[in-house]
Amino acid sequence: MSHATQERPVTAAPRRGSLAHARLPRWAPAAIAGGSIVAGIGIGAAAGWQSKVQWGLVAALLFVLVTFALTTKVEGSRQAKDRVATSVVWVCFVLAVVPLLSLAWVTLSKGLEVLDGYFLTHSMNGVLDAEAGGGLYHALLGTIEQVGIATLIAAPIGLLTAVYLVEYGGGKLAQAVTFFVDVMTGIPSIVAGLFILATWNLMLGFGPSGFAGAMALAILMMPVVVRSTEEMLKLVPNELREASLALGIPKWRTILKVVLPTAIGGITTGVMLAVARITGETAPVLLLVFGTKLINPNPFEGAQSSLPLYVYEQYAVGTDAAVARAWAAALVLIAFVMILNLVARGIARWKAPKTGR
Which of 3, 194, 195, 266 has the fewest CB within 10 Å, making it most exposed? Predict the structure, then answer.
């Protein structure tokens, strides 16, 4: 070309539509929540409502409605729906936590009035229910023995049943077992107690004992263990099983050395959930163990007491001293379940397979 190349003029790129849009400030949710609480209190006080629960429900409803209205006006309807969903989640969380914290606070404040070393190491032998004094050692010992025996019965049976359903089952027998496990999950505790009463006590002629109560508790515990263990075993990747089997390891050893250690954390949590369920049962103990004021360390002979039965008996008396003992026993029962859960989590973390190199 004989002439210099002409440069083409550079045109500016077309401006795209801005993605920025108006948003509520970061402090808006907290401000809306505070205003809703104040408005809920004001509406409840003006209406003469005595229940603080009604005030809280009004405040929660106002929080969701005001959040939706402001977000729709400022950010648009699409973002408003997202914020409303988030607000509903927070409201449900608060509604679930408030009763729990209230229960813990009331139990602590009332239970600590009586709870001391003497209360934990003495029984009600020689103490009238209407009088001050006495303790719950006999009930605590009975609960430990009954729950321990029930766990020794139910945990192995439930674990082996879940292993069969996940690793071996697949036919009509597995379907039948699954059906009956689902049915047993909804069995009322009184029905389990009546079953043991009819078979163990009336048909076989045995008297009241902690072991009879433990068998009824084991019936209530087994379906929970089976269901939780079954779900945990299903979460174990099949690749782990296949890799073990490819090395020539027998299936039973693969289950024992690979599958169960991988799921041990969830299995332990499921067992603890089952233990927590049976620890507070009163009906089977009332039918089969009868309760006593004396210390009976033998769970296979004679009447025993337990913490739930002790709480029921003391609260039924109705005097100030008895009600105080009932609150203290309830606090000990909660602490007992919490300690079991902490120990179980520690064992699960200790036995769980190491993920690092």
Answer: 3
